[in-house]
Amino acid sequence: MQRIKPHLLLASKSPRRKQLLNELGFDFDVVLQDVVEDFPEDLPKAQVPEFLAQKKAQAVRGHLEKGKVILASDTIVLMGDTIYHKPKDYEDAVRILSELSGKVHQVITGVCLLSLEKEVVFSDVAKVHFAPISLEEIDFYVKKFQPYDKAGAYAIQEWIGLAKIQKIEGAYNSIVGLPTQKVYDALSNF
């Protein structure tokens, strides 16, 4: 398969994001920098993923050179006015999944594309309808899959997505963590 331009600098260690970019046909290098994922308290919750994606892109800006584009993204799970971050531990994962059980929440992925010439920032929103999940099922999921690096304490491509998601409204890959169609279109204009 012929590779697609531009060459990307991916500011993520996510294996799934890497796989999606490979499948889209992009060449990329991974560039990482630890970033504190904090944001202004008065920032509207739905804007947090774009803010964090920009922050991650700016953190690796020193790697930019002509013909390359940084791709940084961030995903949050939002229900009402509550952001469900990555769980701190087993108890936190159980709490999060118990609160999401049987309800509808939003998964918002923000993306920042940054080159020497321009910056494009956007997000994509998907709604996820969870079936009720028993404490026994939550215990099974958390112990087996250890979703401590997942916003909302779950990954749609794992057991919980197969067994407990009744419906999604929006793009599946946005829930995975990269709105591939929007990324592809945006990169076509670089």
Taken from the alpha-carbon principal axes, the silhouette is globular
Order of SSEs: EHEHEEHEEHHEHH
Helix-residue proportion:
25-40%
Number of strands: 7
Number of helices: 7
Separation of the first and last Cα atoms: 21 Å
How much of the sequence is in beta strands? 25-35%
Q: Structural class, from helix and strand content?
A: alpha/beta
Taking the sheet with the most strands, its summary is:
7 strands, mixed
pLDDT averaged residue by residue: 94
Radius of gyration of CA atoms, rounded to a whole number: 17 Å
Q: Which residue ranges are poorly predicted, with pLDDT under 50 across at least 5 consecutive positions? A: none
What does this structure look like?
This protein is an alpha/beta fold and 190 residues long. The chain is 34% helix and 29% strand. The protein has helices at residues 15-24, 48-59, 90-100, 135-145, 159-164, 172-176, 180-188; strands at 4-10, 26-30, 68-79, 82-84, 104-114, 119-130, 165-169. Strands 1, 2, 3, 4, 5, 6 and 7 form a 7-stranded mixed beta sheet that branches. The chain is globular. GO terms for molecular function: nucleoside triphosphate diphosphatase activity. Its cofactor is a divalent metal cation. It comes from Aureispira anguillae.
